[in-house]
Write a structure and sequence with these properties.
Number of strands: 33
Number of helices: 25
Largest sheet: 8 strands, parallel, barrel
Oligomer: single chain
Strand order of the largest sheet: 24-25-26-27-28-29-30-31
Length: 865
Amino acid sequence: MLRKILFFAILLTSVLSTAVAQQGYRKLSTEQLQVLVPSSTRNVISLAGNWERSIDGETWGAVYLPYSEFETERVTYRRTIRIDAAVAKNYTWHFECLGINDAVEIYVNDRFISRFFGGLTPFRVRIPDGMIAGGTNTLKFIVVGANEGMAKIKDRHLFANETYNGVVRELLLVGTPHIWVNDVDVKTAVNETFSNAQVNAIVRISSGEFEKMLAEIPDSLAGGAQQQKASVTIEATLLRKGTGETVATANPQLVRIERERTVPVNFSLNVANPALWSPENPQLYELAIKISKGGQLIDNYAATVGIRDVRTGTFNGQTGILLNGQFFEIKGVEYVEELEGARGTLSANKIEQDVQLLKTLGANIVRVRYAAPHPYFVHLCDKNGIFVLIDIPVYDLPASIIGSKDMIVRMGNIAKNMITAYNSHPSIIGWNISDGLQEGSPYSDRYFAEITKTLRANSTKLIGKTVRAGANTININGIDLLSIRFDKLLRNNVKVIDELNRVRQIAKDKPIIANFGTFVQPNNLNGYADPLSVEAQAQYIAENFRAAHNSKIAGSIVWSFNDYLLNRPMLATNANNQYVATSGLTGRNRQPRLSFSMLQALFNDEKEPLLHAGTYTSETPLVFIATGIILGIILLVINRSRRFREYMSRALFRPYNFYADIRDQRILSQFQTYLLGAITATVIGLVLASTFYFLRMNYEMDYILMNLIPARGLRELLNSIIWHPGLSLLTFSMLAMIGLFIIALIIRIGAAFVRGRIFMSDAITIAVWSSLPFLFLLPLGIALFKLLSVTNSVFWLFIVLAVLVIWVLYRILKSTAVVFDVPPQRVYLIGSAIIILLIIGTGMVLDTQYGMMAYMQYFMNVLRG
């Protein structure tokens, strides 16, 4: 009885865990599977469901696949399936992988099948004949994340999304007949009057162990089974999608195929008065391929066909994209395949909802960022009339990295995989090869040349790239589209228009796309006067859309359609969750914002929603003013002491005599020293807190912190501190105090190498009184936030701080020489060497681990250029 109870408890737990998993992910339906595997002769088994998961290969737990995995190194998944013996031998078996990141090793019954670099691009792996046996079969997938160097490169884009590894999308086990349609590559062309179209298809026919299958068909094997050759008939028919009406039929071709071979078969079909595909009228055809022998069907396959003519050119004096002979204004958004609760693993019904929202918005093009799109998403774009521009995932990389051989080879492989997976879809308008690279660099030029060469050799789709606004030179060789990215919260339309007009002169005859967006605080309804409000996002999008439209360029792409998870915490928005990129027209839960309604009105030429101006003032936080005033009062009070005034005067104007008193153990007031140290540290904290608070919404500051502080937890803490003036002031003041104590400790340690008796109190006195010049920052600190707001620059502040730091370091070294009673040249030399070594050592560690020098060079050449 106990055994039965235990059995039912385990069974119930399994059922409940499966139900919970399926609440988050709904496996593909029969109709959806038919879309992805369009054939009636194939056996399609979805492998979505419960698997075992292990990181070390020994300890196993349960997981429901597909699943967006955070583990970045190596994860093993396994499960057993049961296949009837007759079914197993009647098919050649394949894995259809809709999206695995990054690379995968595949095993069947512990026998190695293949290793494949997925990168979330769909791919197919054939299972050798006989490996799938009748009965129980064990499937094992070992997924390996990107190597450390490549993972860091993906992480270092400022707005990089959270990288998901593992079996992110559904796995399918597909059984095909032993002679099957392996691939169909379709290209279409129309004449100048659009009265006639040519549909050209390369159909690749593959074979396995076909002897037993053909033995059932009379006279099937030519020359006997030993020759392992067969002749089959291939037919191609073009049908109107939905109605099944025959539009064109190609002459059947007799193909002689050997076992374990792939044979290409070319078909050309003529279509009179074709129905052209466009976003307004997405007319589709279906190219039906049949393999038969002696009138008996062996395999069939249906490829979606859209007949349209896309090219770049000039229409009525406006340079842009011509779709079916007419100017096509791009009205697009960026899309990141990510959803709250699902992360990167979206069910087909969720993808359908996204596409419906895109149609409601009025978008006619979607730029897919960071990863290859789900094939079902591309199918829905074919069906609903939305162009898709797919990114090769290259974002804000230093020139020296993008020009490396490993990077070029990796991106070339990604490009080839994407072409294989998507090239025949009518909705695919092109490939975006980069975003934000350094223009004019020979390394970048090498990458541009190699990747465009790869794409041109394998695809006729358009090739585009994205350049940051302000780039002095732009390499336009080999590209068809040029996007200009505005991401510094520009609010003056004239600046946007001026930049677009300037780029037009550089780009010559290339279509130009304005790419813009901004981040918001999702619950900020303070009106568009507040730069982080939802109204400000709506206004910003409206202003830039009108600027682009009035500039007569090819169109606009707004970033982004949806919020998504970031790989690193973000400073600029002070969001409740620093790991959410709140640039979306909708949230991660797809709840539309005001900007969605605004862009919908702009895209569809409808009445725009009214925007509330609100009130917003960027004033100096009261805590900064109050602290500065209190510090000033304290200084005035203690300055009434004659002895303190004397200390101040001697420390500033006669430092040798002052430090000689310390050496000779003449007593200085320790209370005044500690009080002065506290005041100095607070002044430093006031200046730093004011500066960081002023720069809190500055993307450049975010970028610098990303490189100098790679630890996520520390960055997250620092971001939170910066946005709270009081806490920021306290934190930076405490850090300054700790800094003075560390300097004193170094001086005390150095005293061990000289004969003089130097106590810790003496070392603290040296550190505090040497830092006296920082007090000159007090008047500046009180009004610093206001001054920065007026000048809108911190460059002058950095110059002032640099001068003061050098002065203070000089005073510390000079005082050390006096107190230690050693030649000052020796102290200057040793002290300077230590400082230089500390700077170089820290830089080398950051550069070795994170490539800091390359990224800071990129910052100076591109972001600040």
